[in-house]
Write a structure and sequence with these properties.
The structure is a homotetramer of 319-residue chains.
Chain A (H helix, E strand, L loop, with lengths): L2 E6 L7 H14 L3 E5 L2 H6 L3 E3 L27 H13 L5 E5 L1 H12 L4 E5 L15 H22 L2 E6 L6 H10 L3 E3 L7 H13 L5 E6 L5 H12 L4 E4 L11 H19 L5 E6 L2 E6 L12 H10 L2
Parallel strand pairs in A: 1-2, 1-4, 4-5, 5-10, 6-8, 6-9, 7-8
Antiparallel strand pairs in A: 2-3, 10-11
Helix pairs in contact in A: 1-9, 5-6, 6-10
């Protein structure tokens, strides 16, 4: 193996740059050439491929976003588009590809492996919703961004004795809501993994008020409902006044946390090793606190599981 | 003069605690007793008044929110309510009151002076919209919170080559939008002080795209319109796709910046001095970089003026 | 079991308050009374013991330091002192004690169990040097504090093309230096677990310069030597000019990271469960990503092991 | 005028990049060509001069350090060196130079004006020690960095009931120590502008202890003495135990605060205007809250004056 390439795809996540850096430096350390593909799969189709040097990834470990940029590519969803991508890969003498992104990006990599291109995937998404790995790159940073926001909102909630609803990202996975709610000391956490029950929620809020709670934070994952919808329900069903905060896109950005930089470095380097071993269709991740690699197809054979003991704990601690 | 009191009122602003601390410590330094009124004017009516000690304000200079809490008080808007407040003030032997808050709170103080209570007002609102002072407590912190958010959003904007609309607080005053836009390197800033012109905005955005700009940040003050409304206009009138981020309540919270802690300390101490000089109906503030005090009625005789040279500058620097 | 107590001891670590909160809330949730001991073991001897309520631990999950405070206690090192402590524990009807701290504090707890007091220990130290657990409370926060400092120093290192030596905490354990060095993109990491070899270090630095490196960050754990000593060696042996930064006490403080708040909540709650099960002489911790508890004596049967694969990785990525 | 250049010199300060960006964008807005000089005056001598585009300064407003880098230049201190610089300036067709830095850099610019090169200076130094301007670029950011450090140290000081000495930058000017001490709630502030009196300090500390103060923060500017020297004095003269924290180089780095980005933008743009007006030997700054320009020679005719009312206030508030 003489040359590999790396791309970032899907929604950006803090730590993607640290992963790109690790792929590039590890590859050069191992004597390989390494190219960067710009704009994800679309750039692959268009041949936006450049050789990278050690200096290309200098001073980026601490930066949010991705220097390789990302883009949606409807064209890549067609066989024709993917064949163009394969042509470009061959044209540039690329013998293996590291794909950094979420499950949509992983699906793209799986398709490429079917066309004969060795691919290894590195999980990077703030949602932490990749099956088979305990942590994805970006989750820890997003989590810290959310709790900083909750800490700020708590200042106002306490000063004005109000109930706030904080909406965080997470369409299918409640990880961000659950961890942030527990770490932020939220009184209530609503996650997609649990059926929403307005009667139970209202009972809980009223019982808190009965015990003398004067302010309260509810964290809701967007996959359950929007914060505004929830505010309407509480107003309509129980005349409970709330304020709403939708954290939105700030959750994706920012300088990566130490933890995200470390796992991004580990995952990126491992991906290069896997390619050098001549393997393909592999995902990198963490299990039992160890960096692992596993069959890419396993990602699609189940759903990422939430640690429900944390959910129980959050209920006990918010009495 | 033997005893004064202090209260916080209206929306909370970072640095209110630093101001409360300064009032309390300066008063004690000068040999006065000082009481804290809980829950703003409503607490005044209800006699929620406690003597404070040096220790009562220990370890609060760095905290957001207000330890004295704040509340709305429809009752205080009635003469009857205000008379109750006056009774409580007299009952507690309070000879002067420091009111920390925004212009609504200042109006309440003005009413109290008409009933014979010596009042001095300290401007604290993240909107920086008090006539007669260059800076209010909380503005600098909110500004830094907003640019941190913009920095994060820029990571995604750059990575995905997208246009983002960031909505910041400011119903009547564009200070926060203007300063944040300039400091955040926003390509476009929309403030209530300038008439909104969609044609001009669209021309500007398209000209940027023409020059090769691949991403763009628009900062809009809520007083102009909501970010969602703006997104709809851009979509409808020019088919421009944008993403929206409403910063909301995080702008009110957080540990105060150094600058806000300093002016809060200066304003709070000056307020005590003014009361000790036997004056009433006075506002404290900053003009020409100096701490000043001026007639409280002047606050209502005009509007806070925006520095339009900054607006011009922002346009020149975002070519 | 009707009543337990909790204390913090040794150097403070961010997240201690979150652990105290978890102990108190979990205990109350389980129907127990819970007391807080002020000033660690010294306070135990002096009977500084107060019943805590839900409200006693409100609004502290985000605070650095420890509301229970900590103190050194030479008296507790004597049998007489410990017997006084036992008397106080019995006097207050305390049937179990949660000790939050580092290995010195754990040793104290072990002594108390020998005197018949059921004790459970929660690891909290920024050094991450407790045998038997993958993570201690405070490590993740300190790590993020260190990389923020390194990011700042890198600004100057890059601007002036200089080599900086950053000294971080860690007398016996190199965890903080290793993780921070890897996450901070340091070119060189010196840890107590590896023998220091000035010849090798100088060769490495010169080889970097030869490849065109214009600035460089060296992270050194205080257990290896001080940054100033290292600067002297590099100057004397190879005429290499460096700048020195000793991070010092800022590493202990600050609002805990999300991760530290989560594990503090988990460890604190588990400690209460262990006491309720009638067990004593137990340490709580994390292994293979799971919250565990194990024999307190095991803490002293070995040394915390560093993940040397991270050390190798850091060398490969800093070529 | 068709072409100008910009350089950064001396110690780096957060906001230098924002100033470079403003110079470049304002110049291009006005139809000028603008070049960047690398490595300060040394780069000028060596002809390290590159034409800059709008894109050259994209995405740098939020970055610490300086993309133009800085360097010491003993050669520039000789007439011969400066003549080489003048030759390069002429060779590149540069008709005016913007120098961003501290007073040493300003002196260099003054020398260049004597050799016929139109120069305008922009004050950027975290020390805030330039005569004639209320604020220099970088001061506000450094100030916030220092108070964040003090907030962290206070966590430990409170938890362990200790006295801490925090050493901040400032050889001749006490601005950083004074503002940080006031904003950080320090009990004592030692600045070069005030004669150090150990007897008075010890009396003050003991009186605090007498009133029940259990912890205390002393902020000392490096120009008074080092934190370690102070600790020795307190130990020797009064047996007062203290802990020491030397903040060091972290004070120079970091993403600039909103305020620093704003004044950097204003100063940079004004500098271009001054050059376009055909003026030379001018410094830009702020007075009475307004952006001003004034004779560069005035910088050296006096010393920056500290606001001693803040010093008095800090003493009153730390009773």
């Amino acid at each position: 193996m003489k040359k590999i390439a790396v791309l970032t795809s899907g929604g950006d996540a803090p730590g993607m740059n640290a992963a790109v850096r690790a792929v590039v430096r590890k590859a050069i350390y191992e004597g390989l050439d390494v190219a960067g593909v710009l704009n994800g799969y679309q750039g692959l189709i268009e041949g936006k491929i450049e050789l990278l040097q050690l200096g290309s990834v200098g001073d980026i470990i601490q930066r949010g976003g991705t220097i390789l940029r990302s883009a949606r590519s409807p064209e890549f969803r067609t066989l024709e588009g993917r064949q163009k991508a394969v042509e470009q890969i061959k044209l540039h003498g690329i013998e293996g590809l590291v794909v950094i992104g979420g499950d949509g990006s992983f699906m793209g990599a799986l398709e490429l492996t079917l066309l004969g291109i060795p691919c290894v995937c590195v999980p990077a998404t703030i949602d932490n919703d990749i099956n088979g790995t305990e942590f994805t790159i970006g989750f820890d940073t997003a989590l810290n961004t959310v709790i900083e926001a909750i800490d700020k909102i708590r200042d106002t909630a306490t000063s004005h004795e109000r109930t706030f609803i904080v909406e965080v990202m997470g369409r299918n996975a409640g990880d961000l809501a659950l961890w942030a709610g527990l770490a932020g000391g939220a009184e209530t956490i609503l996650i997609p993994e649990e059926k929403f029950d307005s009667t139970d929620l209202i009972k809980r809020l009223k019982s808190g008020t009965g015990r003398g709670k004067k302010h309260s934070i509810i964290v809701v994952a967007e996959g359950v409902m929007s914060a505004n919808e929830l505010a309407d329900i509480l107003k309509k069903e129980a005349n409970i006044e709330t304020r709403v905060s939708v954290l939105g896109h700030i959750q994706r950005g920012g300088s990566p946390s130490a933890r995200d930089r470390v796992i991004a470095s580990q995952y990126g380097a491992r991906a290069v090793e896997v390619l050098m071993e001549g393997r393909s269709g592999v995902a990198v991740g963490m299990r039992d606190h160890l960096v692992i690699d596993y069959d890419l197809q396993d990602v699609f054979k189940g759903l990422h599981e939430l640690d429900m003991s944390m959910y129980t704990l959050s209920k006990e601690l918010s009495i």
